[in-house]
Design goal:
- The chain is of the alpha/beta class.
- It folds into two domains: 247 residues, pyruvate-formate lyase- activating enzyme, CATH 3.80.30; 67 residues, Orthogonal Bundle (Arc Repressor Mutant, subunit A).
- The protein is 36% helix and 22% strand.
- It is built from 15 helices and 16 strands.
- It has a nine-stranded mixed beta sheet with strand order 9-10-8-7-6-5-4-1-11, sandwiched between helices. Strands 12-13-14 form a three-stranded antiparallel beta sheet, with no helix packed on it.
- Helix 6 runs parallel beside helix 8.
């Protein structure tokens, strides 16, 4: 296989990880840690900025297209701490004038009026982890909020002038019926979010649900649930553009699109991951930071804070690209493969031919696009390229 050659600039995003949460949910396998008392927000902002300074030589001269502050529950931090963080980012990195800056928030951690403070410091997009509007389901999921707080948190962005917000919802919950899933959709669209992330609950290793699995709906119920809720979302103007993402016109998440289109991203914070292209060396590599907050706070800004740095092998690049790009309903231009991986289009053969023969990908030479069947059975589609 030829050495990758990059002929076009790769867009760059920034991910900031804040690892603390009020309570660890039984389904969560993210790097999140229950806060035992006040979170050390001042020390952590210092650590984030030191982390960023160490990484700056890797991205000299490149502009940030989007910023995503995730967790954990970043809304545990005060607006003052986040303001200092954003000021520090702007002082060290060039951000485009209309940079999308997203903050994750959970009901139960955001008091009335806090969203207005977030808007004032430059946060222009929110992602609110509602998960369900059903009290019984929320309790089974171990959430700290109830239906009332979910509605209050989803109504608050409108009052704060933050119309660009996402609601996270899940389906296939323990004991959930199709009717309950449809009720969650009706409640969500009534709140008029710009974007909905709607995904099936899966049981992941290293979670409490994995150790003590709940009883989930059967496959037939899940399939019907997904079919009917997707139809409702479409009826209300939420167009599916990715496996689990639905948006109103011009409200797709730019940060996540960069992931799915195999753009670059810098990751700072405990356990944060990044993917960076080095055109001079002809390689793409993944970089990650120490996972435990205590270790990260002690080592941030030093080489000891790097949890790992590994290149993506040339043989792995095609499937790495497709694992992201084929999550998009409309796929991507075929030319994007060469632009983002540095490899010629022939690197996708013979997998591309097999996938098209099986009806998993559209027979379009100008686009790499899954069929409806391929999107539904994405793992089977990707197997053709392994």
């Amino acid at each position: 296989m030829a050495t990758p050659e990059f002929t076009a600039p790769i867009p760059l995003a920034l991910y900031v990880h804040i690892p603390w949460c009020a309570r660890k949910c039984p389904y969560c396998d993210f790097n999140s840690h229950e806060a035992r008392g006040p979170v050390p927000e001042s020390a952590y902002v210092d650590a984030l900025l030191a982390d960023l300074e160490q990484d700056l030589p890797r991205v000299w001269g490149r502009r940030i297209e989007s910023v995503f502050i995730g967790g954990g529950t970043p809304s545990l931090f005060s607006a003052e701490a986040l303001d200092r963080l954003l000021a520090g980012l702007r002082a060290r990195l060039p951000l485009r004038p209309d940079t999308e800056i997203t903050l994750e928030a959970n009901p139960g951690t955001v008091e009335q009026g806090k969203f207005a403070e977030f808007r004032e410091i430059g946060i222009n997009r929110l992602s609110i982890g509602v998960q369900s509007f059903n009290d019984e389901q929320l309790q089974r999921l171990g959430r700290i909020h109830a239906r009332r707080e979910a509605f209050a948190a989803a109504e608050a962005p409108h009052a704060a002038g933050l119309e660009n917000f996402n609601l996270d919802l899940m389906f296939g919950l323990p004991g959930q019926t199709v009717e309950q899933a449809l009720a969650d959709i009706a409640n969500a669209v009534a709140l008029q979010p710009a974007h909905l992330s709607y995904y099936q609950l899966t049981i992941e290793p290293n979670t409490r649900f994995y150790q003590s699995p709940p009883t989930l709906p059967d496959d037939e119920t899940i399939s019907l649930m997904q079919e009917r809720t997707q139809a409702e979302l479409a009826r209300y103007g939420y167009r599916q553009y990715e496996v689990s993402a639905y948006a109103r016109e011009n409200r797709r998440c730019r940060h996540n699109l960069n992931y799915w289109e195999f753009g670059d991203y810098l990751g700072i914070g405990a356990g944060a991951h990044g993917k960076l292209t080095d055109p001079a060396a002809g390689r793409i590599h993944r970089l990650w930071k120490l996972k435990q907050p205590r270790d990260y706070l002690a080592m941030a800004g030093t080489p000891a804070s790097i949890g790992g740095d590994a290149p993506i092998g040339e043989a792995d690049l095609p499937v790495e690209f497709l694992m992201n790009a084929l999550r998009l309903v409309e796929g991507v231009p075929a030319a994007l493969f060469e632009e983002r991986t540095g490899l010629p289009p022939t690197a996708l053969e013979p997998g591309l031919g097999r996938a098209r023969e099986r009806g998993l990908m559209e027979a379009d030479s100008e686009r790499l696009q899954p069929t409806e069947f391929g999107l539904r059975f994405l793992n089977d589609l990707l197997q053709e390229f392994m």
